[in-house]
Prior knowledge:
The protein is mainly alpha-helical. Helices cover 63% and strands 6% of the residues. The protein is built from seven helices and two strands; from the N terminus they run ααααββααα. The protein has helices at residues 15-34, 41-53, 58-65, 69-81, 103-127, 129-142, 145-153; strands spanning 85-89, 97-101. It has a two-stranded antiparallel sheet with strand order 1-2. Strand 1 and strand 2 (97-101) form a beta hairpin. It is globular, with a radius of gyration of 19 Å. It starts with 14 loop residues before the first helix and ends in a 9-residue tail after the last helix.
Amino acid sequence: MPSPLLSAKDPLVCNGSALRKATRRITQLYDAVLAPSGISVSQRSVLVHVERAGTPTMTQLAHAMVLDRSALAHNLRPLERDGYLVQRRDAVDGRSRRVALTEAGRAKLAESNRLWRMAQNRFEVVYGAQRAADLRAALAEIFSEEFAEAFRQSDAAAPNAR
Length: 162
């Protein structure tokens, strides 16, 4: 019999809590697959975001990852310590810091790609490729700036809010 603490059918289950639980589970599963590379799915995500952006500022990177700067700094420390990333002062605005991949970071990202694809494939086999694509689209909408703004602007007197 399923535990009442895990029920997703309960109308009182918080959407935020359900998303966090799902995120923690997926993180556990992907981390297990990525373990031979020596980096976690969260660390890989940082490397991917930096690679895509080139040399983003800390603010740009935090925004792209939907993190506050202190959480980003916490995530960068082990990657810098291990030589995968470097931070440098921006040449134009000395107050800003830019993040860049090192050669070791590029190599670590390339090394993790095969394992990440394996985790991604497992997810799609178990969950279904189309459902996974639909889920990514729904989640992209939820983490968008437009959704955040609509959420902030929504009427506090919505049904079930009282």
